[in-house]
Specification:
The protein is an alpha/beta fold. About 30% of the residues lie in helices and about 25% in strands. The longest helix has 26 residues. The N and C termini lie far apart (about 50 Å). The relative contact order is 0.08. This is MiaB/RimO family radical SAM methylthiotransferase.
Length: about 450
């Protein structure tokens, strides 16, 4: 049977789709492109915004047009939060929630035998165990691989539906993460991206067996100094010890979970990239409080400063929501100002999307679509200027770059620096998937052009 996958949303969804592809391949299925004729279409959905829901529904209908007789399975966050809505879309045959994805091959084969629309959903408060999908061996990228290390969130930001889609916090066992990392390194991947629904919460649940270990360092006259290692640092330490020429990148960290001191502890691990995605969501202290984010603009800027003290070129990317209920022009200006103050290298701008079941949905002062669009456009322009300013700040420096592909049209190699800048340079195609030192010399396209440094 031919099977096609369409994935919306985050890196976790991308990882889970890859795990499913390998599971189906092992059963003899042929993986085809999402727009090809297939016997089975799997839509791995997102529900972060109303637009995500709409895109999910659109692809479901598109798949059915390609092959009206196909089996269509809707899985993931939209399926988890709105199962009846998904089930009632014409052409849908199987609906499976976030903790049921791993059983999809069995559900599809049962459907072939029995027919009839099937729904496999557990309530969000029953999602308490980490569903290990096994060790993946490949990714669409030849250089960068995602490793899912964590599932769920218990922060309940007032705008966010994800805790109801993904359930409580649960972390993947350290040996399983290390085993997958070793497998991916052996396959030739040079960048491992640790990802989760809220990666900063890794190992924070009470019953996590690897929660606290001890690092012992010898000082002076054999005196021993003990320091607790907890959270995502447990994984960083273990992965940093592995042999091989590779680097580690953290998909995202939440400043409402980690502070400046904790973030700086991670800087001791030489394989960890000098780049963090620190979700901000708003630059206004008042709005941050309404969002239940539990930090201030000052604390966020302090965290960024500590990182830049370590490396002036440290890359900081973020997310910002515009048009949260009650957001005034002054609140919006606070968000604009922090983009410049923090010298952010990339900003993902989102218009607030009302999610039924969240606290923010019941708040007063919802912002008009026109105002949200205006603020979104303005912040996009500002973030582009900030990205350019960050690139200019890096001109004349030498960064370590992982070259990823060769563009025949320009004759340039393209890659990503350790601090998350798109880099272009002259070089031979054989250098793809190789680490090189590049002197950054001039702004170019969406990044910087540089000169390859030869030893």
């Amino acid at each position: 049977m031919k099977i096609a996958f369409h994935t919306l949303g985050c890196k976790v969804n991308q990882y889970e789709t890859q795990a499913l592809k390998e599971k189906f391949q092992n059963r003899g299925y042929e993986i085809v492109a999402e727009d090809d004729f297939a016997d089975v279409y799997v839509i791995n959905t997102c529900t972060v915004t109303g637009l995500s829901d709409r895109k999910s529904r659109q692809y479901i209908r598109r798949a059915k047009k390609i092959n009206p007789d196909s089996i269509t399975a809707v899985i993931g966050c939209y399926a988890q939060v709105s199962p009846e809505e998904a089930k009632n879309i014409a052409g849908v045959n199987i609906v499976a929630g976030t903790n049921e994805k791993n059983k999809l091959p069995e559900y599809i084969e049962a459907y072939v035998r029995e027919n009839g629309v099937e729904s496999h959903i557990r309530e969000w408060d029953e999602l308490t165990e980490f569903e290990d999908t096994g060790i993946i061996t490949s990714m669409d990228s030849r250089t960068r691989a995602f490793i899912k290390v964590q599932e769920g969130c218990n922060r309940f930001c007032s705008y966010c539906i994800i805790p109801y889609a993904r359930g409580s916090v649960r972390s993947r066992a350290v040996p399983h993460v290390v085993a997958e990392a070793k497998s991916l390194i052996a396959q030739g991947f040079k960048e491992l991206v640790l990802t989760g629904i809220n990666t900063a919460l890794y190992g924070m649940e009470k019953d996590f067996s690897d929660l606290v270990t001890e690092k012992v360092s010898e000082t002076g006259d054999n005196d021993k100094e003990k320091e607790s290692i907890y959270g995502i640092e447990i994984l960083i330490r273990e992965l940093n010890r592995l042999d091989g020429d590779f680097r580690i990148r953290i998909g995202s960290l939440e400043p409402n979970v980690i502070d400046a001191d904790y973030a700086c502890r991670l800087l001791q691990y030489e394989k960890l990239c000098p780049h963090l995605h620190l979700s901000l969501q708003s630059g206004s202290d008042r709005i941050l409080k309404e969002m239940n984010r539990s930090y201030t603009q000052e604390q966020y800027l302090k965290l960024v400063k500590r990182l830049r003290d370590h490396d002036p070129g440290f890359g900081v990317t973020t997310d910002i929501i515009v048009g949260f209920p009650g957001e005034t022009e002054m609140d919006f200006e606070d968000s604009c100002s922090i983009v410049e103050l923090a010298e952010l290298s990339k900003v993902h701008v989102f218009k607030y999307s009302k999610r039924e079941g969240t606290k923010a949905a019941q708040m007063k002062g919802h912002i008009s679509p026109e105002t949200k669009s205006r603020r979104s456009d303005a912040l996009h322009k500002l973030s582009e200027k900030a990205a350019e300013a960050f690139c200019k700040k890096n001109l004349g420096t030498v960064r370590r770059v992982l070259l990823e592909q060769y563009d025949e049209n320009t004759g340039l190699l393209e890659g990503l620096s350790d601090n998350y800048i798109k880099v272009y340079c002259q070089g031979d195609e054989t250098l793809c998937n190789v680490f090189v030192k590049v002197e950054l010399t001039e702004l170019y396209r969406d990044g910087i052009k540089g000169v390859l440094m030869h030893s």
